[in-house]
From TrEMBL:
Cytoplasm listed as a keyword: no
Signal peptide: 1-22
InterPro entries: DUF5689
Entry coiled-coil feature ranges: none
Keywords from the named record: Signal
Domain of life: Bacteria
Name the record gives this protein: DUF5689 domain-containing protein
Source organism of the structure: Chitinophaga dinghuensis
Domain DUF5689: from-to ranges: 46-261, 276-476
UniProt KW Signal keyword: yes
PROSITE patterns with a match to the protein in the record: PROKAR_LIPOPROTEIN
Lineage: Bacteria, Pseudomonadati, Bacteroidota, Chitinophagia, Chitinophagales
């Protein structure tokens, strides 16, 4: 530690900003590697536990090039955390003080964050460890100024899930500080029942609610009066709660992110009294084969599973938090659309529980009786097709994940598309997709699909059909795309291929591959790299094979916006590479060249996104035979075989194969490919090919 950094911890609060800026000036500047949509290439040197071990009772400024990472488990979205985030890795958690608002926009729950800790200060407030930049005159860490946050924090991938550690309240200790914990079998103390989480008058800036279990182990639930749920009453039942464990001196405290963390407090209390809220499982048990009116003062809590765009008007699928039971909620057409993940509290008194086309349904619920109480999620059960069908009646309106399935396009429908899902077990499940934004690149083999089960009784049938509801294209992952069923058959020269109809599929004999090598044709794309027939913008940075507007459209130019691109009927087959998938290939499978000679190929190679500074070098090779293991590079001529570099180009490329492919009675494969690492820095290019022509004698 240099002299300036040693003296900084003694400065008064009035000099904090000056000291903070000084520390930034004396820290090494890290070069942040460019990345797109995932984690940056940053070497982790330490864990959060290593960081915590540095604290010996007084603030310490970090002088080593310490870099650690963690996943955000607490942000400021609900307002219950203010100017701070909490991150956790496999060894522990840490509170990071940040002098900025709306942190959830950049650092939402589930975002991986890389922390370059050199120059930061590790201290404590009431014994709870915090990370900041310097200290105030009370030796407490000071928030990192907004202007320099990016010098210390790098945002990585999103959607990461931290599973909470399950404990009973008596097992809480300082080693669990700033970690996501599920406390088992807790209830609000009798003295605090009926209170709200916060004080809406703001007379008290925060409110303490006592939580207790049946063994009288206690913890304080502390909530900000500025949280967006401050005016909501705490639940009256007993169950598990999830939140971040903190403490102030000797007082154990629990911090929830929003009310979804308390949604399981619906069970019978320790004294045997029942809350007015029942589980969806208990609701389903009320149905005995005929319609039943739900008794007054009966409520249920459920998390929305469905996407309104893929359901009939008024249908909402909800499940209880543990995914053990669900129900179809039917509301009047024109009622509010409840977003997927919304946690609903429903006053079901007077509503009717019925079976509609084989599906258990709660209907006649006034819109005013449905209240959104936060956001949450459920964990799908992993199963197979046979087991899902066998349990269709009790698993209806709950989430499942099916692995190793085959998906094919089924019978057409006037209102959507049917897909048939099978696996190695017996039976099949139908996925009906009415939302045009959901794209499934069927046929697929060995895929994973997640969705909610439902059942349907067709007219005249005696047994229900098992269905799977999808919410988004991302519900289908992995899988092998079936290659085109036909080859390119060279008839009359020239043989022309444009891509103006690729929204309906790739042309015969054309496929796309990842990881091509000189000895392998490459792998069928998977995940986000699956061929996506929907129109894509040149500027979209997500990786994958795409349907781009062609640079051959004279009405377009380097500054054309997405709407103009989408309007173009002149299309091109394209790709956006990523750090994870750089080698890619466009493949042309020719049935044979029997009786043909002097084969030549022309195509337009297009560089489309001028904001992409990295460069990709392309070349052409060929192979002969049904399953070739040797590919030969051939000379290609044209203005440039390089895309990216901030350029907008449409270069004509010519390839002459000479006699190499004359009169071959077996398959001929020709690839346009990039196998090298992309050059320079910044975003990777949006590359496309168009107007492919094979000429021959």
């Amino acid at each position: 530690m240099n002299k300036l950094c040693k003296q900084f911890v003694r400065f008064s609060g009035g000099l904090v900003l000056l000291g903070a800026l000084a520390i930034v000036s004396c820290k090494k500047t890290f070069d942040e590697p460019p990345y797109s949509g995932g984690d940056p290439v940053i070497q982790i040197t330490n864990s959060i536990a290593d960081l915590q071990a540095l604290y010996k009772g007084s603030p310490v400024t970090i002088t080593d090039n310490m870099i650690f990472s963690g996943v955000v488990i607490g942000d400021d979205k609900s307002g219950n955390l203010f100017k701070q985030i909490v991150i956790q890795d496999s060894t522990g958690g840490i509170n990071i003080q940040l002098d900025a608002s709306n942190l959830n926009a950049k650092y939402p729950i589930g975002r991986k964050v890389f922390v370059k800790a050199k120059g930061l200060t590790l201290g404590a407030y009431g014994g709870l460890l915090e990370l900041g930049l310097g200290v105030n005159d009370q030796s407490q860490p000071v928030r990192i100024p907004s202007a320099v946050i990016d010098s210390f924090l790098v945002a990585g991938s999103s959607g990461n899930v931290v599973m909470p550690l399950e404990l009973t309240a008596d097992k809480l200790s300082q080693k669990y500080q700033n970690m996501l914990i599920t406390l088992k079998d807790m209830q609000v103390a009798t003295s605090d029942m009926g209170k709200t989480y916060g004080d809406t008058t703001k007379t008290a800036t925060s409110v303490n609610i006592n939580l207790v279990n049946c063994a009288n182990a206690t913890v304080v639930l502390r909530s900000s009066s500025y949280a967006n749920f401050a005016g909501i009453k705490v639940p009256a039942g007993k169950g598990n709660i999830t939140g971040i464990y903190t403490f102030f001196n000797t007082t154990s405290q629990f911090l929830i992110r929003d009310t979804a963390d308390m949604r399981l407090l619906t069970g019978t209390r320790c004294d045997g009294t029942s809350a007015t809220t029942i589980t969806i499982s208990d609701l389903r048990k009320m149905y005995k084969g005929t319609d039943v009116v739900i008794p007054a003062n009966t409520s249920i809590v459920g998390t929305v599973l469905s996407s309104s765009a893929n359901e009939a008007a008024g249908n909402v699928r909800i499940a209880q938090a543990d995914n053990s039971a669900g129900v179809l909620l039917y509301t009047a057409k024109g009622s509010p659309d409840y977003a997927q993940g919304s946690v609903l509290t429903i006053d079901a008194g007077g509503a009717t529980l019925t079976a509609f086309n084989g599906e258990l349904e709660l209907k006649n619920v006034p819109v005013a009786n449905v209240v959104v109480k936060g956001n949450g999620g459920v964990t799908p059960r992993q199963t197979d097709v046979k087991t899902a069908i066998a349990n269709k009646s009790i698993w209806a309106s709950t989430m499942v994940t099916l692995k190793g399935v085959n998906i094919v396009t089924g019978a057409p429908s006037t209102s959507g598309t049917n897909y048939t899902i099978t696996d190695a077990t017996t039976g099949n499940i139908v996925a009906f997709v009415k939302d045009a934004n959901i794209k499934i690149n069927a046929p697929l083999t060995n895929a994973t699909v997640t969705g909610y089960l439902s059942v349907y009784l067709p007219a005249g049938a005696t047994d229900t059909v098992t269905q799977l509801g999808l919410r988004a294209s991302s519900d289908v992952t992995g899988g092998d795309v079936t290659n085109p069923a036909t080859n390119i058959v060279l008839g009359t020269s020239p043989y022309l291929i444009d891509f103006n109809n690729i929204a309906n599929g790739l042309p015969a004999g054309v496929s796309v591959k990842t990881t091509p090598t000189s000895t392998s044709i490459g792998a069928d794309p998977s995940g986000t790299f699956l061929w996506a027939p929907a129109k894509a913008s040149w500027q979209a940075t997500g990786g994958g094979f795409k349907n781009y507007a062609s640079a051959g459209d004279a009405s377009l130019g380097m500054g054309s916006i997405s709407t103009a691109q989408d309007a173009s009927t002149n299309r091109a087959l394209g790709v956006r590479q990523t750090s994870a998938v750089e080698p890619v290939a466009f493949v042309f499978e020719i049935a044979n060249t029997t009786g043909k000679s002097n084969l030549a190929m022309n195509f337009n190679l297009q560089s489309l996104d001028t904001s992409s500074k990295r460069t990709s070098v392309w070349y052409v090779d060929y192979a002969i035979g049904d399953n070739p293991t040797t590919f030969t590079t051939v000379s290609a001529t044209g203005t440039s075989l390089v895309t990216g570099g901030g350029l907008y180009t449409n270069n004509l490329i010519t390839v002459n194969f000479g006699a190499a492919l004359d009169n071959k009675n077996s398959k001929v494969y020709i690839r346009i490919l990039c196998t090298e690492k992309t050059g320079s820095a910044g975003n990777r290019s949006s590359t496309a090919i168009d107007d492919v022509k094979f000429s021959f004698q």
